[in-house]
Automatic annotation (TrEMBL):
MF-aspect GO terms: acetyl-CoA C-acyltransferase activity
Domain Thiolase N-terminal, residue spans: 5-262
Catalytic-site annotation from UniProt: 91, 348, 378
Main enzyme class: transferase
SUPFAM superfamilies, per database record: Thiolase-like (SSF53901)
UniProt domain Thiolase C-terminal: residue ranges: 270-391
Entry-linked InterPro entries: Thiolase, Thiolase-like, Thiolase_C, Thiolase_N
E.C. numbers: 2.3.1.16
Protein name: Acetyl-CoA C-acyltransferase
Recorded coiled-coil stretches: none
Record keyword Acyltransferase present: yes
Endpoints of the signal sequence: none
Taxonomy, superkingdom: Bacteria
Length: 394
């Protein structure tokens, strides 16, 4: 089987995903096009060489509808001959895009491909694609007669099951902001972030990071999901998920360039890593956020590695208890997980987050001299992707 190599990975800064956020004035197609152009310019390739652009987006409605990836390719100025497709595996959409891109190279269908993603949560609010509609149908309702729950309630169920206190969740969130703040100050995001210029300013750092965040400050926030309908159904929950120990609504885009060995040699590229192993897993759609456990086990088994062989982890911080429960079950070293902070601070622009995590993971491995990195992300519906990459010495 052929190898799939990662040549480069870029992302925009994360903007607050609300009106008035730093990136809220930019159409998602244009935001996406920005990272596509930056990736091609940095690598020095001719965009006409691309076999495909595979992109993730969750809210595929309104300004992100109609195969938004195709419009981003055209907005980026790529030749009309470059194809593009938009996929949806919820929060893991751009991570899945990378899996499809790598698999295409490994199979011989591709030589050069971009995996990317975008989400403008300020312009296409979360839930827009299902507003006023029943996305489940009668079969799902019959299988789960108690009914499915919002992701925030799922996070509460996880906190209750793993006996995670409100203080531990807030401490985790404060640490995420502290790590991300330090990474920003020390320039550790410089290689992955491509600045975005608007008519008002140049955005070159994540707007969602709050330096100086404290446990005491987070403790003052009210639980976000303690509505009467849920408290009556789940009396075992202490209700501790807040806006502070969850990922913020965010705008952003990301892109990763992958190539075959032949393309690397023919185009004079430098491969920074190889895609070692990939996996996807399904799990309980009620406590939907813990698919990262079977996904992690599956990808490690597939790679022939143990948790102790991994030098850096990126585990998406959709909600603090997801990562804390994953740590409790895997035994991973917390010092190696989300070294430069996670989505609690950096943000979670849904369709773009998989590519964002990959850009960060690649840079962390290079900054620390690590060999293997593992990325995993929970996804709505009880799904999760996991990816292991191997850094290459150049």
């Amino acid at each position: 089987m052929r190898e799939a190599f990662i040549v480069d990975a870029v992302r925009t800064p994360s903007g607050r995903g609300k009106p008035g956020g730093a990136l809220s004035g930019i159409h998602p197609v244009d935001l996406h096009a920005h990272v596509l152009r930056a990736l091609v310019d940095r690598s020095g390739i001719d965009a006409a060489e691309l076999d495909d652009v595979i992109s993730g987006a969750v809210g595929q409605v309104g300004e992100q509808s109609g195969n938004t990836a195709r419009w981003a390719v055209l907005a980026a100025g790529f030749p009309e001959s470059v194809p593009a497709v938009t996929i949806d595996r919820q929060c893991g959409s751009s991570q899945q895009a990378l899996h499809f891109a790598a698999q295409g190279i490994q199979s011989g269908a591709y030589d050069l491909v971009i995996a990317s993603g975008v989400e403008s949560m300020s312009r296409v609010p979360i839930g827009s694609q299902t507003a006023g509609a029943d996305p489940f149908g009668s079969g799902v309702a019959e299988r789960y007669p108690g009914g499915l729950v919002p992701q925030g309630v799922s996070a509460e169920l996880i906190a209750a099951r793993w006996t995670l206190s409100r203080e531990s969740l807030d401490a985790f969130a404060a640490e995420s902001h502290a790590r991300a703040s330090a990474a920003t100050r020390n320039g550790r995001f410089a290689r992955e972030i491509v600045a975005v210029s608007t008519s008002e300013r140049t955005v070159d750092r994540d707007e969602t990071i709050r330096e100086g965040t404290t446990i005491e400050g987070l403790a003052a926030l009210r639980p976000a999901f303690a509505q009467e309908s849920w408290t009556a159904r789940f009396p075992q929950i202490d209700w501790s998920i807040t806006a502070g120990n969850s990922s913020p609504l965010s705008d952003g885009a990301s892109a990763v360039l992958l190539a075959s060995e032949d393309a690397v040699e023919r185009l004079g590229l430098t491969a920074r890593a190889r895609v070692h192993s990939v996996a996807v897993a399904g799990d309980d759609p009620v406590t939907m956020l813990m698919g990262i456990l079977p996904a992690t086990r599956k990808v490690l088994d597939r790679a022939g590695l143990s948790i102790d062989d991994i030098d850096a982890f990126e585990v998406n911080e959709a909600f603090a208890p997801v990562v804390l429960a994953w740590l409790a079950e895997t035994g991973a070293d917390p010092a190696l997980v989300n070294v430069n902070g996670g989505a609690t601070a950096i943000g979670h622009p849904l369709g773009a987050s998989g590519g964002r995590l990959m850009a960060t993971l690649l840079n962390v491995l290079e900054q620390r001299g690590g060999r293997f990195g593992l990325q995993t992300m929970c996804e709505a519906g009880g799904l999760a992707n996991a990816t292991i990459i191997e850094r290459l010495e150049n």
